[in-house]
Design goal:
By secondary structure, the chain is mostly helical. It has 7 helices and 2 strands. It has a two-stranded antiparallel ribbon.
Length: about 140
């Protein structure tokens, strides 16, 4: 993350400098994985698409939080910073990481404006998790030490 953006997030109260917290990193990763395991048991249909999308989104957000804690920062009151740090990770298909901001907007529309998430959107975030979650987790763990 470039320093200008990092300082902006700190100045806006979206991040706070902390010590690297490896137990918290591991706990967030475990929680994200467990959440996805549980939500995978729910059949996907028009009635469940919103719930499934939200839970996958929450798991991805937790990975963003884990990344921040691995760098010595506490994310505060903003999903934007959690997704932003993931979009800057070095995985094979960086273009796919740009979907994260779109996922954030879809989730916000569902939560705050009452928009219904459709099956295709739920399938898209599920596929994202399937293709990239373990790569993201691997990078978080490798760079944490």
């Amino acid at each position: 993350m470039n320093k200008e953006k990092l300082y902006y997030f700190i100045r806006e109260g979206k991040l706070r400098k902390r010590h690297i917290d490896i137990p918290r990193v591991k706990s967030l990763i475990e929680s994200a994985r467990n959440n996805v395991k549980a939500v995978c048991k729910i059949p996907l249909n028009e009635e469940t698409a919103t719930v499934i999308f939200r839970e996958y989104y929450e798991s991805i957000r937790q990975l963003g939080d884990a990344r921040w804690w691995s760098l010595g920062y506490e994310p505060r009151a903003s999903h934007e910073v959690s997704m932003e740090i993931l979009m800057e990770m070095k995985i094979n298909n960086v273009a796919e990481l740009k979907k994260l901001d779109r996922f954030r907007k879809i989730r916000n529309n569902a939560n705050y404006r009452g928009y219904k998430i459709n099956i295709e959107q739920a399938e898209e975030i599920m596929k994202f998790w399937e293709n990239y979650a373990e790569k993201i987790i691997k990078e978080i763990i490798e760079t944490t030490g």
